[in-house]
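User:
Care to share a sequence and structure tokens?

Assistant:
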Amino acid sequence: MLAAVAVLTAWSGYQAARWEARSATAYALAADTNVLAQEQLTLAGQDHLYDIITFNSWIEARHRGDEKLCQFFERRFRPEFALAFAAWLETDPLQNPNAPPGPSFMPEYKSARADRARELAVQARSHLQRGIATRETGDQYVRITVILATVLLLTALAQRFKIQAARVGLLAVASARLLFAVYWITTFPRA
């Protein structure tokens, strides 16, 4: 019995360490992916700010009637913004009071970087969930290790008693806990 407990304890500890490593890897991937998502979100915000500044400059040039400067700013629009700008112009915004306030309010206004940031955020959450799940599996193996340690304790205590019934009782409890641990070890996933 002691040999079986020693081997199972080693196996359980090994599995706990392997699952902990997987958990740490998943957490690291979650953090790394989250940093990439934040980077893309920051760049998307900078793009949006650039779009607003160039559009405001275009509005100012249009207000002054400087067509050459308007064309200059239109050439500087980012391609994603230029599509929304063209759609916004079709609403006749200078005459139509119901037109959206600017191209960034149009459904055509898209940001590939913002879309990528959302994708990366979803990936980061997936990595995080995997890290949590693998940590829980590792924790289950730690729990088995503790149960196996109690089997060792009960077996050692049983040897100290001179009364046969106490020995048999402690060994019965230890055996039951050992069977429970063996069942868990055979049904848990392996790393």
Observations:
- The chain has a mean pLDDT of 94.
- The CA atoms of residues 16 and 138 lie 4 Å apart.
- The two ends are 25 Å apart (CA to CA).
